[in-house]
Amino acid sequence: MRHLARWIAIVYLALLVVWPVSLVFWHTFGDGLAPVFATFADPLVLHAFRLTAVATAWSVVLNVLFGVTISILLVRHEFPGKRILNVLVDIPLSVSPVVVGLALVLVYSQDTGIFGKPLAALGVHVLFATPAIVLATTFVALPLVIREIVPVLHEVGTDQEQAARSLGASGPQTFWRITIPAIRWGLLYGVVLSLARSIGEFGAVKVVSGNVIGRTQTATLVVEQFYYEFDKERAFAIASALALVAIAAIVAVGVLRSRAAIKEANS
Amino acid sequence: MTVAQLRNARRFLGGRRALPRTTLRRGSGISLGVAVLWLSLLVLIPLAAVVATAANGGWAGVVTTLSNPQTLAAIRLTLAQAAGVTVVNVVMGTLIAWVLVRDEFPGKRVVEIVIDVPFALPTIVAGLVLLGLYGPRSPLGFDVSNTRSAVFLAFAFVTLPFVVRAVQPVLEELDPEIEQAARSLGASEAQNLVRVVLPSLVPAIAAGAALSFARAVSEYGSLVLISGNLALRTEVTSVRILTYIENGQVAQASVVATVLLLVAFVVIGTLDFLQRKVTRRG
Fold first, then answer.
1. CATH topology of domain B69-281
2. Domains identified in chain A and CATH numbers
């Protein structure tokens, strides 16, 4: 029975994940590396990757700042409305990317949006431009850092922080010298997961970016465009690059986790 | 002594509640303010605007949009396929989690990585990936593109990790002594599984199922390429909303989006309830 369960699991995963994913690499590298290099020499493709990198960088930085702040508040403090806040920060995980896009369009539209109108009067255009892409990407990756840090904060407790405070450390000193080192692994996983999620965002960005070729197109949007233009070679090349980044992120988290587990077992 | 203990002690001694309901000082109060402001600007006000726009058209607007045959078909298809995929995930996810915890074999660490691939892979890449094996050029001769099976397949791909990752830690923490006791009292392997192991996994399985259902209902990127988005046949709710947006029918888009938001809130509420139940037990 044990062997049967093992083989059912392996066959299911092979058919659903392993075989299909390896086919993409096969399609990409089957004809040698020349078409892949040609794809990445295209200025349109390079521009799309640059935009993805910008949006991802903003998303990770904003979500680390917000995530660390809110996690410490949720774990270390008591205040009215804490339970509601705890539920609210998880919302982005369950909302459709298209709905995320629609929500941002409604609020940041230049003509009718309650934020978009005054911003447009100041000359700031959010929608169909980089700011909207950053907002959409940040929205979808919002809970990932929090989800990784909150359990770690619960686990490490407050003993060390209290000891530091009683020895005369200031609030910021305690934060940088005690709290941050204690949560550094959780924070790192959170960063890697946010990175992967931000690079891959598609639906929300499609709605808010306007999908303008060469201007507001991210790497994932270029994959779709090339596919619809029957330019499958280039679609596969970009998809493979994105898949490699995603798989590298999971492997990195996996290796770090098992290292951390071994260290913990030895100490 | 923690703040909570202090407060309980005061209450026990019959004194007036000396500690305020908040432990925020000025610095942390300001950071809470900034964090909530950011959450409002990015998430809460935009989502509220969706609901407000939907409500703007009144009840009549809601009924007209939701009784549109194409919209109705899209919602029905999404809910049905999401439910079907969730059932598959409950069975396969629990089985995979069981294999990962209780079985030892070479390559187990590779399986661990494979489980997370759908979570990290960009959704549009996932669509392309599935087209390779289950599209027109399928080496298996098994083409599901532009059919309802394609929707099911895409949902199954993106929701694979949820039940596995919910069940796995609970199964790891399960006390082996209880199972040993059951066995020593003459329970067979199957009886042990059904009467001892599975009941303690139920909250975790339910939590994973809720997450997997929510993810499937809201899915967009992985199925646009493979499902063909055929009206009344393979069009899902997210695609329907996008069509409304592209046609400038923001009110209709908001009504359908509100339906999806309601589903999301029900799922989040269920999860919150389940988590409380699990922690109370533990």
1. MetI-like fold (1.10.3720)
2. 43-91+129-202+212-266 (1.10.3720.10)
Contacts of residue A135, defined as CB under 8 A and 6 or more positions apart, other chains included, come to A104, A108, A126, A208, B42
Task: Give pLDDT tens digits for B76-119.
Answer: 999 999 999 999 999 999 999 999 998 999 989 899 999 999 99
- Closest partner residue to A92 among B43, B53, B221, by Cβ? B43
CB atoms within 10 A of CB A154: 12
pLDDT in tens, B157-188: 999 999 999 999 999 988 888 888 888 888 88
The whole-angstrom separation of Cα B73 and Cα B63 is: 15
DSSP B41: I
- What is the torsion angle, in degrees rounded to the nearest 10, for the CA atoms of residue B101, residue A253, residue B130 and residue A26? -110
First to last CA, chain B: 22
Put simply, the answer to whether A77 touches B115 (Cβ < 8 Å) is no
* DSSP 8-state symbol, B142: -
User: Are A199 and B116 an interchain contact pair (Cβ–Cβ within 8 Å)?
Assistant: no
Residue with tokens 């596995």: B164
3-state secondary structure of B64: helix
Predicted complex ipTM: 0.91
Q: Give the SS3 label for residue A215.
A: coil
Q: Which of B21, B99, B113, B129 to mutate to test the interface with A (most CBs of A within 10 A)?
A: B129
